[in-house]
Fold each of these.
Amino acid sequence: MPEHCTNHPDRPSVITCFKMNFGYCQECLDTCEACTEPCGYCKTRSGCVIYELCRKSESVRLKREECED
Ligand SMILES: [Zn+2]
């Protein structure tokens, strides 16, 4: 598991994207910046904590709608 947030290298990671093996901090998780691929195929999606936590997020929902058009 990566020790630091991919977007914020000065912060410890609290969660890992198993597909990309990127770490993310709590803020990235809270703002749902943690899922790099809300649209494309992700083989870990069914067990992805990030995806589950962000399922109701407005920003992720909008991103998804954009790519489904
Ligand atoms: Zn971060």
Note: The first helix runs from residue 26 to 30.
Amino acid sequence: MIASQRHLFDMPDDIAYLNCAYMSPLMKPVVEAGAVGMARKAQPWTVFPQDFFTDSETARGLFAQLIGATADDVAIVPSASYGIASAAANVAVASGQEILILAEQFPSNVYSWRELAQETGATLRTLQKGQDDDWTRVILDAITDSTAMAALPHNHWTDGSLIDLVAVGAKLRSVGAALVLDLTQSLGAMPFSVPAIQPDFMVCACYKWMLGPYSIGFMYVAPKWQAGRPLEQGWITRARSEDFARLLDYAEDMQPGARRYDMGERSNFALMPAAIQAMQHLLDWSPEAISETLGARTSDIARRAATLGLQALPDSARAPHFLGLRFPGGAPEGLVQRLAAEQVHVSQRGDSMRVTPHLYNNDTDTERLIDALRRLV
Ligand SMILES: Cc1ncc(COP(=O)(O)O)c(C=O)c1O
């Protein structure tokens, strides 16, 4: 268990921020690293050609450590939607095949698949969760010889319901289908293993559970797709781009590994040092310990919310860091706004009130939430 790390955050005592699924706050050292990086651009004579590469490579290596891959497998992207679009430009989908997604999946992991289905004559099949709340069984049952791929999260962004990606990955491989993942609502707060799950593409925006800045994300690309087609044709992703004097010797070949998928201007001198700081903290704490710590807090909240008549998935059916509370008669009108007026911050998605803590929370925050719910529900 990790003790509350609130001292690392700029978070007044009277704020109960339980809304990491919306956006995490940045730690003070992360803000500091970003500020130092931003200030460098005020003095460009301090920015050297090698600086376009060093932080990018450090960040790739840290992200790779988080997921059990190598730096060569990691591309730098601005958003989940960019990574999903890169995956959609490369996966093999043919007419008559199926692309599987979940009902109420986050839009960044839907629209590219709609478009790909229209272009290829494939069917986009939206799976519905059954009464037993078991997404894994629904997905496993849906995978057939007609499945081209599945585009999934690790846990649903509305209520935290968990998917067994090891089982799903194995079944997809058994029929020759691909697995594309958007881990924006889990990576950093929950362990993830590339060797165990073997995704084809996996993308994660950094501004939630990675505790990083907005507009930076990372994408894992399996070795078999590393010779694929990037969305952009930039200069830095080409071979020998380190040699600025010879950039006009236009190169046909590319930087090795997944680097060909990097976004333009990926050497972001302000945001990349911030993302690096955040990942170093996550690795120091470890996703396992973060998950265990947040799991204890959400279980406690779920148990106490149940005494007020609010329902949640059983702990075993949801991601430890992610609690969705449901009201038997539907959510009271304006509840999230009334909680916010009392400085208790949560969010509503679908019919689920998301309570998503991180290490900045403490027991006082839990008390404030429960006390406010007792009065307002
Ligand atoms: C599951 C999921 N994916 C991705 C995003 C963000 O998408 P993008 O990076 O395309 O803005 C969110 C934001 O709420 C999300 O919940």
Note: The mean pLDDT is 97.
